[in-house]
Amino acid sequence: MRSILTFLLLCLSTVGLSQELNSNVVVNALLTGNENLQIFKTLENQLTEFVSKTKWTKKNVEPQERIDCNIVINVTEYSGENFKASIQIQSSRPVYGSTYSTPTYNINDKDFNFKYLEFQNLIYNENQFESNLVSVLSFHVYMILGMDAESFSENGGTPYFVQAQKIANYSQQEKFKGWKLEDGLQSRFALIDNILSPTYKEFRTVMYKYHRLGLDAMSEDIKAGKSQIAEALGYFKKMNSRRPNSYLARVFFDAKADEIESIFSGGPSVDISNMVDVLNKVAPTYSSKWRSIKF
């Protein structure tokens, strides 16, 4: 009896420590006209378990260290085992000394076609392609892990980005879109290629300085934290001069535009003249938000 209890406790401990993510997965099939089919609920449940219970890293993660993320799969067409969909992924991490969580990853991946049979096994293999469903989910999980790590230590996300690139590389051999160079400037291929390219190195500097030196410092000194954030955003100037209108800049500001507007729309005041100029050049689609910045 004691050995059985010990085994069960070990199993429960392993499951608890293996969960790097607090994930909320939603499968929305409204556009198919058959949203009440059981297969969509089964898919939702299986993906929730897949994301939450897969051991993505070698780290032992405590419950309070898990990353919050929301995954919404919008199925637009469904026929047999063939699904046409898009996937929206958002993740966040807590800000030191506050109850606020800051977004770190916000992506709408529109090239998400996959095959799925109800109750099929969803197993992640780090070295080979299993299915496009598994590859796309796994790729974005490693992007979530990488972006989170970047926000705590400079270039801390490298091992997770390297794994995301490995997934992209072996998935290129299949017929699904989003994995190849010819799939466009806003594909999964482009995203991970840009992240790891020296051409866009300032992006990773911004991720660290904005979060760790800026947001996390605001609980002790709001003005100093805001100054660090303004300085961090200035790094985009060099990246933009090298590659104007980059996908990575869009990824960053899609996640951060509302937050930046909020931070700099109240006191205490800091020098933001250079920052606003950079924002208007790098992210002109959010110019209405930049105009509301006063401090």
Task: Give the topology, please.
Layout: H1 2-18, E1 21-28, H2 38-53, E2 67-79, E3 82-94, E4 101-115, H3 132-150, H4 158-171, H5 188-195, H6 201-214, H7 222-233, H8 236-242, H9 247-263, H10 273-282, H11 287-291
Helix pairs in contact: 3-4, 4-5, 6-7
Describe this entry's structure for a reader.
The protein is an alpha+beta fold. The protein has two domains: 21-196, no CATH class; 202-291, no CATH class. Helices cover 47% and strands 17% of the residues. It has eleven helices and four strands. It has helices at 2-18, 38-53, 132-150, 158-171, 188-195, 201-214, 222-233, 236-242, 247-263, 273-282, 287-291, and strands at 21-28, 67-79, 82-94, 101-115. It has a four-stranded mixed sheet. Strand 1 (21-28), helix 2 and strand 2 form a beta-alpha-beta unit. Helix 6 runs antiparallel to helix 7 (222-233). The longest helix has 19 residues, at 132-150. It is globular. Mean pLDDT is 92; it is low at 1-18.
